[in-house]
Predict the 3D structure of the following.
Amino acid sequence: MSIQKFIIYGAGTEGRIAKLKMEYDKEDVICFIDQNLQGQKVEGLDVLSIDEGVRLADKFNYKIVISSQKHKKTMKHTLKMHGFKNYQVFSYNTLFEAVKYSLSPRWKINKRRYIKIVEFLYPVFLVLFFPFALMLYILNFRLVYNFRFPGFGHMALEPDALLANDDFKKYKFIAIVDETNTSNRYLLDIVTSKFITIKNFYLFHLFYFMFHYKFLNYNAGNNFMKMVDKYFLVEDNNIMEKTDLNVLKYMPSVYRPLVNNEEQNFFFPEGEKENCREILDKSFGIKENDWFVCVHARDDREYNQIRSCNIHSFEQAIEFITSKGGFVIRLGDKGVQKLSYNNSKVIDYANSNVKSKIMDLYLMSEQTFLIGTITGVSDVSQMFRRPVISTNVASWVQPRYMKGDIYLLKMFKNKVNDLIIGISEYMDNKIYLSAIRDEIEILNKYQVLDNTAEEILNATKEMYAVLFENKQPFNFADQDQYRKKFPEDSMPRIGKANVSQYFLDKYKNIFGI
């Protein structure tokens, strides 16, 4: 009889504790799955993407262990979307057992033991450090906790919104950072350069409890993310009402300063530019005076069909750009579906041997514009104030909003009457909450229509006309009429980006314009 082997889903603190307990019980753990930390090593084990982990588990009949109690419903949903059923949820039997494994002699790495001891003593620290926290508050210091999140996009987006906010001039902000838990350390260095920053593993975990002093914390966007984490796929009658309020009211209030203040706050390090420029020249033949467009498509359709698209739908746009003398650079995780072009101006950088985290940032900062989907890449491009064409926007109330950006919506066809729905049905059925509700419910009712190659091509032509021909290919009366179909103060109303005019003309009747 073969010994069962395991893959742990989640490589954060809970995942590490799960590994510890399983090893204590003499279970054989092979690797971790974690979308944010993929490609790294945690506790000596490789961290795989969800796709890689599921394929490995399928091939060798490994069992996947869901490590997080908080996110277990989301993780179950993800595995089901991948058609994977051989999983179990990890849990402690008692609090005593949790502490036992945390402080076990088998826990040989001091950092791991340190974290659990500090977390165990948080209640004591909350009392002892209260006078210190009060002093910081009186002296006008505030803690920024956005840097706790390893996600690529939010690491750029919320600090950018904070610097655009007038409150940034009123307070002295302290960012306490665990730089070992981030998707891109170079990006972390860039965004923390504008704050008083403590980059220390031990101090981060020692002072983490201070985020419980709400009077000392300044939120720059993550109340929304915390709320999503709390209510994601949980059966609660108030979920949609609470989420609705955040999507339509809270998020616009957070990002409004960016809409009204277009000044660039963060810059790629000057000292790294020459080396990156040399790599572009030697590897791809892109000279200093050449221009290039980056393309990036979220392509995890098995995980999230509503937000994904096929990179091949960009092909006509790619051909248009190269016909105008530009280069096209494909961004993405290493190992994504390869591009096959007999054109030296089309570069599959994502699968090249020069791909690196710092080159990722350099390309996003120097590109002429981006053609992509709603991902962290578009948020970082925005941080560097590069124009963005966002395709396949499923949440119509959360489109691009910066001046100069263009977006295309995913359309939804009602399966009962076989008609493409308009804004009223979309809003009444709250399809814009698809990112935090069960996708299957929506897919049972609606067919999701990705943007066509022709739609993406025409949006690209519009961007080219603005940037290279000094033209405005938009009917601003139509654009205003479209915006007014959405609730007051929602992102489409306050934003300055435009829907692709070709797309708006195509669906004029459906939008009631």
Remarks:
- Residues 98-109, 222-240 have pLDDT under 50 and may be disordered.
- The longest strand covers residues 28-33.
